[in-house]
Amino acid sequence: MKKWSEKWRRIATGVLDVPQDLTMEMPRITMIGQLQMYIENHRGVLWFSNQELRLLLTKGQLLIRGKNLIIRMILQEEVLVEGTIHQVVFLDE
Questions:
Q1: How many Cβ atoms from other residues are within 10 Å of residue 49's Cβ?
Q2: What is the domain class of 26-91 according to CATH?
């Protein structure tokens, strides 16, 4: 069943010209240099410190490492992080 829904989403993306981040439940990440990162479509904060942020995604996790990190804004599926970002890693399920 999971494979069918993923296949349907890919077809819908191509035919309807819908952005992949919406149909495939992927995160949309916008960075401004090393200073700011805006993440949409996350599923929650797993861990936060001034050096690391770990977000739950639909498929896996997103790990952000840096210095003097702060969460400037957080909503149900959006988060804005500021500080000096050194590393962004996608972790498998």
A1: 9
A2: mainly beta
Token pair, residue 3, equals: 């494979």
Average pLDDT over every residue of 55-71: 97
Specify the higher pLDDT residue, 25 or 92: 92
Domain ranges of the chain: 26-91
Distance CA 37, CA 31 (A): 4
Asked if 81 and 65 count as a contact pair (C-beta separation under 8 A), the reply is no
| CA pair distance 62, 79, nearest whole angstrom | 12
Amino acid sitting at position 88: V
Q: Is the dihedral of CA 33, 36, 38, 39 positive or negative?
A: positive
Q: 19-30 burial by CB neighbour count: b if 16+ within 10 A, else e?
A: eeeebbeebebe
